[in-house]
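Lab notebook, bench 4. We co-purified these components, and the gel suggests they stay together. Before we commit to crystallization screens, I want a quick structural picture of the whole thing.
Request: model the full complex, all chains together.
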Amino acid sequence: MTMNLYAAQNPASSKVAARALDVHYGEKQALFAVDLDIRAGEVTALIGPSGCGKSTFLRCINRMNDMVDGARVSGSLTLDGSDIYDRNVDVVQLRARVGMVFQKPNPFPKSIYDNVAYGPRIHGLARDQAELDEIVMNSLEKAGLLGEVEDRLQESGTGLSGGQQQRLCIARAIAVAPEVILMDEPCSALDPIATAKVEELIDELRENFTIVIVTHSMQQAARVSQRTAFFHLGKLIEVGDTEQIFTNPQQPLTQGYITGRFG
Amino acid sequence: MQTLTLAVVLLLLSTLAFQLGRKRAFAVSERQSMPLHSLPGYYGSWVALWCGLPAFAILALWLMFEPSLVRELVVADLPAAMRDLPADRVDVLVNEVRNAAMGHATADADLAVAAEHYNHLRHIGFAVIAAITVTIALAGAAFAWRRIQPELRARPRVEASVNVFLVASSTVAIFTTIGIVLSLLFEAMRFFNMVGFMDFLFGLNWSPQMSTRSDQVGSSGAFGMIPLLTGTMLISLISMVVALPLGLFSAIYMSEYAQPRVRAVAKPALEILAGIPTVVFGFFAVITVAPVIRSVGEVFGLSVAAESALAAGFVMGITLIPLISSLSDDVITAVPQSLREGAFGLGATRSETIRQVVLPAALPGIVGGVLLAVSRAIGETMIVVMAAGLSAKLTFNPLEAVTTVTVQIVTLLVGDTEFDSPKTLAAFALGLMLFAITLGLNVVALHIVQKYREKYD
Amino acid sequence: MTEMAQTTAAATRTAETVAARLGRRYAAERRFRALGLASILMSVAFLAILLGTIVQKGWTGFMQTQIALEVSFDPQVIDPDGGRDPLTLDTADYADLVRNAMAARLAPDADRNARRDLSSMVSTMAADQLRRMVTGNPALIGTKATVWLLASDKLDMVSKGQAPRQPGAVGNVLNDRQLAWLGALEEAGQTRKTFNTTFFTAGDSRAPEQAGIWGAVVGSFFSLAITLLVSFPLGVATAVYLEEFAPTNRWTDLIEVNINNLAAVPSVVFGLLGLAVFLNVFHLPRSSPVAGGLVLALICLPTIIIAGRAALKAVPPSIRQAAAGLGASPLQIVSHHVLPLAMPGMLTGTILGMARALGETAPLLMIGMVAFIVDIPKSPLDPSAVLPVQIYLWAGSSERAFVEKTSAAIMVLLLFLVSMNMVAIILRKKFERRW
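Here is the predicted assembly.
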């Protein structure tokens, strides 16, 4: 792992790359000329005060902002070098490659099994029942949930505890075998113990997936991420290795936020 | 007209009482140099209430019972031969007397006398009631006026009486329900004394026309409600087959797909559809839909009855589209956005999200809405009265004519009603069944919808 | 690193599989979307067809056909003994004058059959027209004058194109001879269409060309006035009580459940209640707007209560707290602050309830409002029809011309409903507040 601060600002070696990315919601501009690279196989944390644009940036990567009326995106945002907002890109395809975990656990009101099997089913990833079973079990296993739910796969996913629900949602996301997983404050609705479990899980998933996580907890960013990007008022202020951002921020704004002077 | 004048006079008296009470409150307070407990207006209102309330209460009671009282007196004074006629004939006579009293000519000398008597009674009655109410109003006002003291707690007293009015108003709904149940039960019990309850509930034959006159021989008629129930079910089923897909898909399209421009046209259109009286739809069924269905049937070599269940059910279905659509719209929009995002985030298309996530989540609410619509279809009257038939046939063929519970209720009660023949009373027994069925459906439906709302609140 | 490789392989496979199925999935998406759009379009189309049918069948109902005839006011027919006695003038056979005039114009040597055909082309009202002319101006007797007389419903239908005018066509209402006569009259410019004032001023009639909706409009007005007077105060009071004062206990729960259920009770059941209680117990006059108005009041009470409660709920608690902080009593809080703010919402709900009551038919049939009533009601106690019941009655008439009258009456009813809804919408727009 290189310690050079700005060496990775190179689209070729990054999974996701933003260049001069602007986002408007109607009249209001939410992101201003953001340049950011997200490296493969790492956890990148996006931090900043609420309303700073970190969630907006996250939602651009799998084009969830398409659903918002009046949202406009300009500049370039690439996944493996190809433009996410290209006319020929299909959102369904894109989202199969870029999965997402949301702030509030949102299991479907279906059984635990069906929740995890949903993605593979719609995308037709399993040729037969046995293969589907395997995918589901694997995903639950990877999400560290299998042991807790093995004997009640047919029960409703909404009956699980908050932390279990969130891990179910993670299992649901990885069942599709995406390349990137976006996490939008995945622990904000969880208690400390459940949070610890999810954080542990994120650390394990790093081996298989590129992860981008939005968090407003600096401790969490420090614990789970390799790189951290600090957003403020829609602008990317600073990005770098997590350790460097928290020990030796280059920008006074970052320093102010880290030391808790605002936020 | 006279009564209206009396009411206006009483109102004027109350207004006057208000002014006097207010003045008195000022005066008393000044004389005793003591501050008033309440605002002077409350003293005025208090006097006005004492003036108006008892008088209006007595007037209301009088209005309620005057017609029966005068009627009894007039009937009592009719020649014995007329008095002893059956109840319904006496009704007709009383009506004639009333008409004669209004100045229409009558050929019968006895009736002319009775009419004069009637007018006389009403005049005396009015004079008496006018005297009583005005006296009571004045007495009440005087009583309250004399009791005005600065320490009199006028506001709580006035507020207490307003409170009584509020509570009383809220019980009207209860009394309406009690009134419905009692009146249906009472007449239905009389019916079940003549026709066996089991025969009614499980009988396969309905032909009340047999018994139009109670004195006819062999006039028992047949009162088995099964054919009516099947007819009602058939037409309701057809209407749901039309309304459910159209209403549900309209709701889905409007809440999940439609551009604001489409919604701006479609929503008001559905609201207009919902606001059109059913008698208009009944006419539409007869004049347009039934002929079209007949001629389409002819093309396929099918013989379609002029009053086919299909025509009535189809048009009823159209009237139910807005209901289903708006209820489904409510429950679909109540499905949390996070569930949709969850599915979109996995790469589901819009229709996959709707079919596999939104609709299953909204299902209980939709079921509740459908039950409400079924209940509406079962109770719907005008469309079937106009477009469905009268023949109580036990069939499930939508091309034939069937009849429904509501059609029979209307048919049995329109025209001459005799409250001692099973024919008339049968309508109340049917009404009781209709009330029970729709009430059951509504309770279940409201319960389901309530549960559903709580889940996502 | 092998696991990473596996995952990469899985991801590649995902991308490929997804791509392969994409076409089919988007086709399903388009089908689903098309189904939704088709449903909306069909619903709107039904509405359009309904309104289109009504307007197409009904707009001619606002016009009526008249025939210009030279009428000779024959003294032999009107006043043979020349006394000019008002009673003689009033009871003379004016229909004979009409028949003579028709025969003189169209078939001077008509036999009895032909004369019957002739007279059935003119409304029986024509004789009344002549009677009014003569009694108003007896000097007319013995003179000749060209008078525009009201045509019969059948001629009216043909002339407006609502019935075929080819001889021998299916559905003819006039016979060939009458069609020929009509042709002759039209050619000579002796027919015209004027605005149908009868329709807006008359009560019901067996003869379509003499039937009007005024009686029903007045009946509806009286009924709605009673409904409003009863249901508005009761509804507002109930809403205020339940929303502002009622403690939450089983009793208020019961009232609430009750109101919700009443809202869904079929209206025909309310009719049964009206028949059993208002007519049989309290002996209110049958077919009268009083009885009808009371039944309708019970029907729209739940609507008003529910709308009223929603309007009260929308008033923010801060207003109540502010007033209470100044020492206002609970009743003063409600009457000075909450109620005025909630009133527009309550009025909107009330108007919508009234609109529903205006279109309600079934319960009124139960209390005898189906009677054939010619006279315009003078008070809410007189027997009368209401608009929707009039529509029902006309829809059931066998005369073809009543189809047109029914449709025209529906247009009037819908016009009333639309204007009531407009008022409600404007009210809502104008007083809408955002807190």
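The first strand of chain C starts at residue 63 and ends at 72. Worth comparing against the SEC data before the next meeting. Chain C is about 65% helix and 5% strand.
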